[in-house]
Write a structure and sequence with these properties.
There is one protein chain. The chain is about 50% helix and about 15% strand. It has an eight-stranded mixed sheet, sandwiched between helices. The protein has about 325 residues and is of the alpha/beta class. The mean pLDDT is about 85. It folds into two domains: about 5-225, Spore Coat Polysaccharide Biosynthesis Protein SpsA, Chain A; about 230-300. The protein has ten helices and eight strands.
Length: about 325
């Protein structure tokens, strides 16, 4: 199969039929063999009913429905596991991503040898309350990931099949799939300017909480990418620094006491010296950091759990 299209969605019943017709038109014009996997993320409208009707009429339409809303990352993660195409393309269900981009996204993977292509919505039709945080988010992600993309959060992306089979997308890490791919060794990452359509139906799911959570996830991913397989290197380094400060404080306490005795002064009690409390505090913190590092190493070696989700129904999905 040439292409698998994974479409995560939440309450997008109005757009699904139109989106599939547009995709089918592009696919038939280019003679691609394909499948469309609709990931219904706990929609409360009639989205699943629309998907069921499409699946009855078209054998290449597949659907998976979560019992409740689990988030876009879990939807993509499950969708990726069921793809069969040589190239996997993701797009949003709100008609803001154009299926006309699919042929070039496919060729960039199959002919130009890229592992991953991320769309860049250079001209956007979103309000400034969304575009301004997005610019700040993309700048921070470029600095931390060292991947020179302009639009990490664009839903329109294409991947070599083995890329999506090699990563686990969880939490809200869908924004950082290029970063996740880079961390497992896929370095040929590019971008393509894509057309951004104005929203035709429904309302945006973007909120301030997603912006804040995005930066928290970026901090987590930055830590994991550098120290995820060796947490003791991070906590041990900080613990060693604390112990070094503790030793310096102990040397200062001893030096001050010896100096006072050498000139005949009455030496103050150790507990009256502020350096004593610096030594005590840094010793305790250093010990705790080493213990955290040891525990993190133990957890890392024993934990390999998949993200938690509940699927209630599948359509045309091979087990």
């Amino acid at each position: 199969m040439d292409i698998s299209i994974v479409i995560p969605l939440y309450n997008e019943e109005e757009s699904l039929g139109e989106l599939y017709a547009w995709i089918a038109k592009v696919m038939h014009a280019n003679n691609y063999s394909y499948e469309v996997i609709f990931m219904n993320d706990g929609s409360t409208d009639n989205s699943w009913g629309v998907i069921q009707e499409l699946a009855k009429e078209h054998e290449n339409v597949k659907g998976i429905r979560f019992r409740k809303n689990q988030g876009k990352s879990n939807a993509l993660n499950v969708g990726f596991k069921h793809t069969q195409g040589d190239v996997v393309i993701t797009m949003d269900a709100d008609l803001q991503d154009s299926p006309d981009e699919i042929p070039e996204l496919y060729n960039l993977i199959m002919k130009d040898g890229y592992d991953l292509i991320s769309g860049w919505k250079q001209k956007r039709y979103d309000p400034i309350t969304k575009t301004l945080p997005t610019k700040l988010f993309n700048w921070a992600t470029r600095k931390i990931s060292k991947i020179q993309l302009h639009d990490f959060n664009c839903g329109l992306k294409s991947y070599r099949s083995d890329v999506v089979k090699s990563i686990t997308v969880y939490g809200e890490m869908h924004r950082y799939i290029p970063f996740l791919a880079k961390n497992v060794g896929y370095n040929k990452i590019g971008e393509k300017v894509v057309e951004h359509q104005a929203r035709k139906y429904g309302v945006t799911k973007f909120g301030l909480d997603r912006f804040i959570n995005g930066f928290l996830d970026l901090a987590t991913l930055a830590m994991i990418s550098k120290f995820g397989r060796r947490p003791m290197h991070f906590f041990g380094l900080l613990g060693t620094l604390m112990f070094f400060i503790s030793i310096v404080a102990l040397a200062v306490i001893g030096g001050l006491k010896m100096y006072a005795l050498s000139i005949g002064d009455k030496a103050a009690l150790v507990t009256d010296n502020p350096w004593f409390y610096i030594m005590l505090t840094t010793t305790i913190i250093g010990t705790q950091l080493f213990l955290i590092g040891f525990l993190a190493e133990i957890v890392l070696r024993q934990s390999n759990k998949e993200p938690n989700y509940t699927i209630t129904e599948k359509l045309n999905i091979a087990e």
